[in-house]
Design a protein that fits this description.
heterodimer, A: 355 residues, alpha/beta, 11 helices, globular, B: 104 residues, mainly alpha
């Protein structure tokens, strides 16, 4: 009987697969990415290397010495003091304490400050408090400290915002009106993000992280790229990171372009050049996890997409590897055996510049 | 919470325990890819790139250069003061330091 290895499904459940099953799933995941993205698959040596990483003994694995990469952080200190029923653990503390814990206790390479809602729009009414918090944190911190939030353009649609909900308009076959609502929301969001970051840069922020860009579709990404462009022009030395929400930009509008390229339907290797062109320093590509497929399938697929993005990019790529992306199981507390193996594969096979 | 710590333990450069913050700064400040950023920082510190993630190798260097360590050391620069030394070391401008200078 063939040796079976403990691995995970995309939802985190433990299963046992032999090497043939692992290789079959890896090859199927790689082929899926290559087909969707119209990119090269992985070589047999690279596929074998991922299989070796998956089958390594030990609960947790690590990259080879000398291959370490910086680990950047999203969601700010909300993972400590926040609790939205997801990754926050709800420990009463302050944001400054959270930042310092990451720097001095956890060994974080960078950190960020963020609002409890973690979207830009709700920051506007409390901008003075955010600036105050940034100044206090910068006085105490040494590692790069960015301000982070989600563009989250959905907050600009009714009933939460001023513009009619394009989903409702589309249901009524009012396509042109839906597109117009997306365009107006995108312009408003761009203005808000620029205004917020102008204040935070004057309050000593190292820069900005646009986290989950494109969550509301192509309008969300269009807005973010224009905000990046404007901020880069005003603050030449600002650190700008753009992390994506999903692997493919959803065409909620369908016709929006940046630099002559239609945003709808872009895959990570096509997103990277646009993010660089807008003026970002660092790109965070995403590949979504399929909960019904194995860890091997998801990891093979994710490494294939990310390797292509790393090769297409002329700025550093810090792959997004939270819960449910980058080959990691879709689970609030992803098992560390899967996290560490995915992390190692991304560094050693996909060649990422950071995580 | 355990997910980011797992990444730090698996792949990270340990921040100011070693030299991860310096490599990250060069990626942000000059768009340097990982190998270029490591080489740049290693050359500035006169160490090999492998030493940048070595807590033992970096501890004394960080203390000597006044660029911040995690424990309390008498008269050692912290916060803005440590970042001003990082500016000089890496030949970059850090926004918080620039804002600080403009206020005095």
């Amino acid at each position: 009987m063939a040796t079976e290895y403990s691995i995970r499904m995309g939802d985190g459940k433990r299963v046992y697969h032999d090497k043939k099953q692992i290789m079959d799933d890896l090859e199927a995941g790689i082929a899926d990415a290559a087909d969707l993205g119209e990119i090269s698959g992985l070589s047999s040596d690279e596929t074998e290397r991922i299989a070796e990483i998956i089958m390594l003994e030990g609960r947790m694995v690590g990259v080879e010495e000398g291959k370490e990469v910086p680990v950047t952080h999203d969601i700010s200190t909300l993972r400590i003091d926040g609790d939205q029923g997801n990754s926050g653990v709800g420990i009463p503390s302050s944001r400054m304490i959270g930042c310092m814990m990451h720097e001095r206790a956890f060994g974080a390479d960078t950190m960020e400050l963020g609002h409890i809602d973690y979207s830009y729009k709700p920051v506007k009414p409390v901008i003075a408090q955010e600036c105050q918090a940034m100044e206090v944190c910068q006085q105490n911190m040494i590692i790069p400290l960015l301000y982070g939030a989600m563009p989250n353009m959905g907050l600009y649609y009714t009933p939460d915002g001023p513009f009619e909900n394009p989903g409702d308009l589309m249901k009524a076959f009012k396509i042109a009106e839906a597109q117009e609502s997306i365009e107006k929301s995108a312009d408003h969001l761009t203005r808000d993000m620029i205004w917020i970051m102008q204040h935070l840069m004057r309050s000593a922020s190292d820069g900005v992280n646009f986290d989950t860009t494109g969550a509301a579709g192509d309008g969300d990404m269009y807005s973010t790229l224009h905000a990046v462009e404007a901020l880069r022009k005003e603050f030449p030395n600002m650190y700008i990171e753009v992390g994506m929400a999903g692997e493919c930009v959803l065409g909620m509008h369908g016709g929006l372009e940046y630099d002559g390229t239609t945003l709808a339907g872009l895959w990570p290797h096509q997103q990277a050049p646009l993010v660089s062109k807008a003026g970002a320093n660092l790109f965070g590509p995403v590949v979504n996890t399929n909960t019904s497929k194995s860890f091997s399938w998801n990891l093979g697929r994710a490494v294939t997409f990310i390797k292509a993005a790393v090769e297409a990019s002329d700025i550093p790529c810090h792959v997004d590897m939270g819960m449910g992306v980058g080959g990691i199981p879709m689970f609030e507390t992803p098992p560390i055996d899967a996290v560490s193996r995915a992390s190692k594969a991304m560094v050693e096979v996909a060649g990422v510049d950071g995580i | 919470m355990g997910m980011p710590i797992s990444h730090i333990m698996t792949s990270g450069m340990s921040g100011i325990r070693a030299a991860g913050d310096l490599v990250a700064r060069m990626q942000f400040a000059k768009n340097m890819r990982i190998d270029e950023a490591k080489k740049f920082v290693a050359d500035k510190l006169n160490v090999a790139p492998i030493d940048l993630s070595d807590e033992f190798a970096m501890r004394e260097i960080r203390e000597d250069l006044g660029i911040g360590v995690i424990t309390s050391v008498a008269e050692a620069p912290k916060g803005i003061a440590a970042k001003m030394n990082i500016e000089k070391l890496l030949d970059i401008e850090i926004n918080s330091c620039e804002r600080f200078r403009n206020q005095i």
